């Protein structure tokens, strides 16, 4: 069990006479947690991977892309939503401690614990009730299968917090070294943002920035132009935005702002779209679904974050609408 700083309140505390509260429900035989604000915004989180599989605005419009062939039964990492990458981004054959782990590590393929909701940080209004709700999830070695524990035998505790607000979604991770010696990790929030038409999308905030292009042979590092990024073919890049984490990365569609992403302690932004290669992915559907998504992934994936015994690291992102 992961230690947590703030104890959760009951799922749906009854407070007669108060403004309406966010509703939190555990469904699908205790395998999913959903939350709805009184104003209608909602999220759904699979305990498998603590993967956010749906995020809707007050009008019920879905903000995340989820493949219609995504496996939601805990047999495979989810293709869509926001899977979590930890403790390795991709694979790292040259990094002995993580070399044996599967692509993107074990966080997205392990079942997390739901630690509860907390309302302490919810801003409230007197008229239409809770304006946010925070759900906490925990992962520690006791939640891993034996194979993952063997491959990465370190004492760790993760607390992943998902805060649904009226204007956006905040996801943050606390990583703690619970052991006696140092270890290293990478972490990333692999957001599949839903768009209507990728040909109308441009991404700003990545201009004049160093990026690693994972599609060149060998992989190359270069500097992006001073114009916004558009996507017209398969793309897989790891940017270190020149403006730093607090400068927003903005996804615009047809000239209108769709998403604005700011980061805390996550220095890199991965931009990924498989384009027509999506047809060769068994869990990607529809085949032209790549036109309706762009992965903009906030992470700490260049080099390694080192945690000494007892140390804690924290990072996160805010995706605003
Ligand atoms: O297919 P997955 O293991 O889910 O990975 C999907 C993608 O994740 C990231 O965006 C990486 O940069 C890509 O190289 C990878 O293809």
TrEMBL record:
What are its E.C. numbers? 5.1.3.15
Pfam families, alphabetically?
Aldose_epim
> According to its UniProt record, which residues of this chain constitute the active site?
190, 297
Where along the chain is substrate bound? 79, 103, 108
Q: Does the keyword Iron-sulfur apply?
A: no
Alphabetical GO biological process terms? carbohydrate metabolic process
Q: Which UniProt keywords apply?
A: Isomerase
Out of the domains of life, which is the source? Eukaryota
- Provide the GO MF annotations for this entry: carbohydrate binding; glucose-6-phosphate 1-epimerase activity
Q: Which InterPro entries match?
A: Aldose_1/G6P_1-epimerase, G6P_1-epimerase, Gal_mutarotase_sf_dom, GH-type_carb-bd
Cellular component (GO) terms are: cytoplasm
Q: What class of enzyme is it?
A: isomerase
Q: Name the catalysed reactions.
A: alpha-D-glucose 6-phosphate = beta-D-glucose 6-phosphate
As for what it does, the entry says: Catalyzes the interconversion between the alpha and beta anomers from at least three hexose 6-phosphate sugars (Glc6P, Gal6P, and Man6P).
- PANTHER family in the cross-refs: APOSPORY-ASSOCIATED PROTEIN C-RELATED, GLUCOSE-6-PHOSPHATE 1-EPIMERASE
Indicate the family of this protein: Belongs to the glucose-6-phosphate 1-epimerase family.
What name goes with this protein? Answer: Glucose-6-phosphate 1-epimerase
Species of provenance:
Amorphotheca resinae ATCC 22711
């Amino acid at each position: 069990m992961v230690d947590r700083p703030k104890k959760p309140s009951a799922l749906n505390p009854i407070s007669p006479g108060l403004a309406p509260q966010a509703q939190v429900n555990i469904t699908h035989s205790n395998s999913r947690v959903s939350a709805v604000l009184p104003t209608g915004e909602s999220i759904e989180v699979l305990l498998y991977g603590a993967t956010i599989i749906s995020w809707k605005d007050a009008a019920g419009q879905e903000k995340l892309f989820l493949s219609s062939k995504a496996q939601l039964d805990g047999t495979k990492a989810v293709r869509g939503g926001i899977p979590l990458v930890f403790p390795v981004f991709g694979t790292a054959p040259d990094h002995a401690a993580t070399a044996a782990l599967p692509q993107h590590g074990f966080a997205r393929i392990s079942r997390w614990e739901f630690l509860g909701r907390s309302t302490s940080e919810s801003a409230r209004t007197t008229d239409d009730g809770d304006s946010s709700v925070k759900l906490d999830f925990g992962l520690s070695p006791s939640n891993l299968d034996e194979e993952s524990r063997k491959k990465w035998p370190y004492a760790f505790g993760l607390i992943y917090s998902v805060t649904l607000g009226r204007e956006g979604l905040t996801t943050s991770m606390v990583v703690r070294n619970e052991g006696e010696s140092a270890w290293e990790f990478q972490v990333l929030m692999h957001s599949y943002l839903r768009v209507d038409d990728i040909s109308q999308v441009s991404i700003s905030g990545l201009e004049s920035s160093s990026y690693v292009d994972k599609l060149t042979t060998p992989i190359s590092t270069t500097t992006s132009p001073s114009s916004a990024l558009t996507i017209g073919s398969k793309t897989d890049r790891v940017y270190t935005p020149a403006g730093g984490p607090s400068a927003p990365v903005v996804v615009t569609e047809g000239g209108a702002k769709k998403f604005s992403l700011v980061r805390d302690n996550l220095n890199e932004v991965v931009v990924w779209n498989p384009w027509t290669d999506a047809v060769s992915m068994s869990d990607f559907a529809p085949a032209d679904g790549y036109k309706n998504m762009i992965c903009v992934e906030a992470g700490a994936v260049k080099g390694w974050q080192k945690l000494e015994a007892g140390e804690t690291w924290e990072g996160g992102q805010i995706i605003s609408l």
